[in-house]
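Hi Y.,

Following your request, here is the sequence exactly as I used it, all 207 residues.
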Amino acid sequence: MGKGVESIRVGRQRQPMKKVIMRQYWRLQQSQTVISMVFWTTTLTLLIWPYVKWRFEATCDSGLCFSDEILGLPSTYIGLMSIGVLVLLSVLLIGYIYDVGLGLWKEHLTISTERNPFGVYLISPPMGLILAQTNMLLKHIASDDEDVQRHVAFVERWLEWNADEEIWARAMDAWKNSMNDDDPHLPFLSEEMQADLIERSSSLPKE
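Below is the corresponding structure, written out as C-alpha coordinates. Let me know if you'd prefer a different format.
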Protein backbone atom coordinates (compact mmCIF):
# COMPACT_ATOMS: atom_id res chain seq x y z
CA MET A 1 0.00 0.00 0.00
CA GLY A 2 1.40 3.41 -0.97
CA LYS A 3 2.43 6.05 1.55
CA GLY A 4 -0.13 8.47 0.12
CA VAL A 5 -3.01 6.09 0.74
CA GLU A 6 -1.75 5.30 4.24
CA SER A 7 -1.44 8.97 5.18
CA ILE A 8 -4.94 9.68 3.94
CA ARG A 9 -6.28 6.81 6.06
CA VAL A 10 -4.54 8.11 9.19
CA GLY A 11 -5.97 11.57 8.59
CA ARG A 12 -9.49 10.19 8.26
CA GLN A 13 -9.21 8.09 11.40
CA ARG A 14 -8.42 11.22 13.37
CA GLN A 15 -11.74 12.84 12.51
CA PRO A 16 -14.48 10.26 13.17
CA MET A 17 -16.64 12.72 15.10
CA LYS A 18 -17.00 15.06 12.13
CA LYS A 19 -18.66 12.36 10.03
CA VAL A 20 -20.93 11.29 12.90
CA ILE A 21 -22.11 14.88 13.38
CA MET A 22 -22.70 15.40 9.65
CA ARG A 23 -24.64 12.13 9.40
CA GLN A 24 -27.04 13.31 12.12
CA TYR A 25 -27.28 16.71 10.42
CA TRP A 26 -28.19 14.98 7.15
CA ARG A 27 -30.93 13.07 8.92
CA LEU A 28 -32.36 16.30 10.31
CA GLN A 29 -32.32 17.85 6.84
CA GLN A 30 -34.51 15.12 5.37
CA SER A 31 -37.59 16.49 7.17
CA GLN A 32 -36.53 20.12 7.09
CA THR A 33 -38.48 21.05 3.93
CA VAL A 34 -41.81 19.67 5.12
CA ILE A 35 -41.41 21.01 8.67
CA SER A 36 -40.37 24.45 7.38
CA MET A 37 -43.39 24.60 5.08
CA VAL A 38 -45.74 23.71 7.96
CA PHE A 39 -44.13 26.27 10.25
CA TRP A 40 -44.17 29.05 7.66
CA THR A 41 -47.78 28.37 6.67
CA THR A 42 -48.92 28.26 10.29
CA THR A 43 -46.96 31.36 11.28
CA LEU A 44 -48.09 33.52 8.35
CA THR A 45 -51.69 32.33 8.69
CA LEU A 46 -51.79 33.31 12.37
CA LEU A 47 -50.11 36.65 11.63
CA ILE A 48 -52.62 37.52 8.88
CA TRP A 49 -55.70 36.22 10.72
CA PRO A 50 -56.09 39.14 13.21
CA TYR A 51 -56.42 41.57 10.27
CA VAL A 52 -59.26 39.67 8.57
CA LYS A 53 -61.02 37.76 11.33
CA TRP A 54 -63.63 40.51 11.77
CA ARG A 55 -65.04 39.56 8.38
CA PHE A 56 -65.95 36.14 9.80
CA GLU A 57 -67.70 37.51 12.89
CA ALA A 58 -71.35 38.34 13.41
CA THR A 59 -70.43 41.97 14.11
CA CYS A 60 -69.17 42.46 10.54
CA ASP A 61 -71.42 45.08 8.94
CA SER A 62 -69.44 46.46 5.99
CA GLY A 63 -67.49 45.20 3.03
CA LEU A 64 -67.03 41.49 2.40
CA CYS A 65 -68.58 39.56 5.31
CA PHE A 66 -69.13 35.85 5.90
CA SER A 67 -71.77 34.06 7.93
CA ASP A 68 -70.96 32.31 11.20
CA GLU A 69 -71.07 28.94 9.42
CA ILE A 70 -70.04 27.87 5.93
CA LEU A 71 -71.07 24.42 4.75
CA GLY A 72 -71.83 23.47 8.33
CA LEU A 73 -68.36 24.46 9.57
CA PRO A 74 -67.53 27.51 11.70
CA SER A 75 -66.41 30.26 9.36
CA THR A 76 -63.26 30.73 11.46
CA TYR A 77 -61.95 27.36 10.31
CA ILE A 78 -62.77 28.18 6.68
CA GLY A 79 -60.96 31.51 7.00
CA LEU A 80 -57.83 29.98 8.50
CA MET A 81 -57.72 27.22 5.89
CA SER A 82 -58.24 29.75 3.08
CA ILE A 83 -55.32 31.87 4.29
CA GLY A 84 -53.15 28.75 4.59
CA VAL A 85 -53.98 27.73 1.02
CA LEU A 86 -53.17 31.25 -0.23
CA VAL A 87 -49.80 31.13 1.54
CA LEU A 88 -48.98 27.78 -0.07
CA LEU A 89 -50.04 29.07 -3.49
CA SER A 90 -47.82 32.13 -2.99
CA VAL A 91 -44.85 29.91 -2.20
CA LEU A 92 -45.64 27.80 -5.28
CA LEU A 93 -45.75 30.95 -7.42
CA ILE A 94 -42.36 32.07 -6.11
CA GLY A 95 -40.99 28.60 -6.86
CA TYR A 96 -42.38 28.78 -10.40
CA ILE A 97 -40.74 32.17 -10.97
CA TYR A 98 -37.47 30.83 -9.53
CA ASP A 99 -37.62 27.81 -11.83
CA VAL A 100 -39.08 29.10 -15.11
CA GLY A 101 -38.52 32.83 -14.94
CA LEU A 102 -35.08 33.21 -13.40
CA GLY A 103 -33.68 29.71 -13.96
CA LEU A 104 -31.40 30.03 -10.94
CA TRP A 105 -31.57 26.27 -10.37
CA LYS A 106 -28.98 25.79 -13.13
CA GLU A 107 -26.37 27.78 -11.23
CA HIS A 108 -27.48 26.09 -8.01
CA LEU A 109 -26.84 22.64 -9.50
CA THR A 110 -23.49 23.80 -10.86
CA ILE A 111 -22.38 24.95 -7.42
CA SER A 112 -23.76 21.77 -5.82
CA THR A 113 -21.77 19.63 -8.26
CA GLU A 114 -18.60 21.63 -7.66
CA ARG A 115 -19.01 21.18 -3.91
CA ASN A 116 -19.91 17.50 -4.20
CA PRO A 117 -16.73 15.37 -3.88
CA PHE A 118 -18.38 12.60 -5.93
CA GLY A 119 -18.73 15.09 -8.77
CA VAL A 120 -15.06 16.07 -8.63
CA TYR A 121 -12.65 13.41 -7.34
CA LEU A 122 -14.45 10.65 -5.42
CA ILE A 123 -15.80 7.57 -7.23
CA SER A 124 -18.83 5.60 -6.10
CA PRO A 125 -18.38 1.79 -6.13
CA PRO A 126 -20.76 1.09 -9.08
CA MET A 127 -19.06 3.75 -11.21
CA GLY A 128 -15.66 2.54 -9.99
CA LEU A 129 -16.32 -1.01 -11.20
CA ILE A 130 -17.30 0.26 -14.65
CA LEU A 131 -14.24 2.51 -14.79
CA ALA A 132 -12.00 -0.37 -13.68
CA GLN A 133 -13.34 -2.67 -16.40
CA THR A 134 -12.80 0.00 -19.05
CA ASN A 135 -9.33 0.68 -17.69
CA MET A 136 -8.34 -3.01 -17.81
CA LEU A 137 -9.52 -3.29 -21.43
CA LEU A 138 -7.58 -0.16 -22.35
CA LYS A 139 -4.49 -1.54 -20.61
CA HIS A 140 -4.49 -4.66 -22.79
CA ILE A 141 -5.63 -3.06 -26.05
CA ALA A 142 -3.01 -0.30 -26.05
CA SER A 143 -0.22 -2.07 -24.20
CA ASP A 144 2.44 -0.47 -26.45
CA ASP A 145 1.20 3.12 -26.13
CA GLU A 146 3.16 4.89 -23.41
CA ASP A 147 0.70 7.76 -22.97
CA VAL A 148 -2.24 5.38 -22.67
CA GLN A 149 -0.38 3.29 -20.10
CA ARG A 150 0.41 6.43 -18.08
CA HIS A 151 -3.30 7.22 -18.06
CA VAL A 152 -4.15 3.64 -17.08
CA ALA A 153 -1.68 3.83 -14.20
CA PHE A 154 -3.24 7.10 -13.04
CA VAL A 155 -6.74 5.58 -13.07
CA GLU A 156 -5.46 2.60 -11.09
CA ARG A 157 -3.96 4.92 -8.46
CA TRP A 158 -7.23 6.90 -8.41
CA LEU A 159 -9.27 3.75 -7.84
CA GLU A 160 -6.93 2.53 -5.11
CA TRP A 161 -7.18 5.87 -3.34
CA ASN A 162 -10.98 5.84 -3.55
CA ALA A 163 -11.19 2.25 -2.30
CA ASP A 164 -10.02 3.53 1.06
CA GLU A 165 -13.30 5.46 1.48
CA GLU A 166 -15.96 4.12 3.84
CA ILE A 167 -18.49 3.93 0.99
CA TRP A 168 -16.38 1.18 -0.61
CA ALA A 169 -16.37 -0.76 2.66
CA ARG A 170 -20.15 -0.44 2.77
CA ALA A 171 -20.36 -1.62 -0.84
CA MET A 172 -18.23 -4.65 0.02
CA ASP A 173 -20.49 -5.35 2.99
CA ALA A 174 -23.54 -5.19 0.69
CA TRP A 175 -21.94 -7.45 -1.93
CA LYS A 176 -21.07 -10.07 0.66
CA ASN A 177 -24.13 -9.89 2.92
CA SER A 178 -27.00 -8.46 0.87
CA MET A 179 -26.08 -10.16 -2.41
CA ASN A 180 -24.53 -13.15 -0.61
CA ASP A 181 -21.64 -13.13 -3.08
CA ASP A 182 -18.73 -15.29 -1.91
CA ASP A 183 -16.08 -13.69 -4.11
CA PRO A 184 -16.58 -9.98 -4.88
CA HIS A 185 -13.15 -9.77 -6.52
CA LEU A 186 -11.70 -6.33 -7.35
CA PRO A 187 -8.75 -6.93 -9.70
CA PHE A 188 -7.64 -3.30 -9.65
CA LEU A 189 -6.74 -3.64 -5.94
CA SER A 190 -3.79 -5.53 -4.52
CA GLU A 191 -4.44 -8.57 -2.37
CA GLU A 192 -3.47 -6.54 0.68
CA MET A 193 -5.92 -3.75 -0.11
CA GLN A 194 -8.72 -6.22 -0.86
CA ALA A 195 -8.14 -7.97 2.46
CA ASP A 196 -8.14 -4.62 4.24
CA LEU A 197 -11.37 -3.61 2.51
CA ILE A 198 -13.06 -6.86 3.54
CA GLU A 199 -11.85 -6.40 7.11
CA ARG A 200 -13.19 -2.84 7.27
CA SER A 201 -16.53 -3.94 5.79
CA SER A 202 -16.97 -6.50 8.56
CA SER A 203 -16.35 -3.94 11.30
CA LEU A 204 -18.73 -1.22 10.09
CA PRO A 205 -21.08 0.22 12.73
CA LYS A 206 -24.69 -0.87 12.29
CA GLU A 207 -26.70 2.33 11.79
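The mean pLDDT is 84.

Thanks again,
Q.
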